[in-house]
Amino acid sequence: MDKIQEALESTLESVDKAEELALREAEKLGLDEDGQQQFGMAVRECMVNAVVHGNRYNSNKKVHFSIERSEERLIVTIGDEGAGFDFKSLPDPLAPENLLRQSGRGFLLMQAFVDEFDLHSRPGGGTEVRLVKNRPES
Question: What is the topology classification, in CATH, of domain 2-134?
Answer without folding.
Answer: Heat Shock Protein 90 (3.30.565)
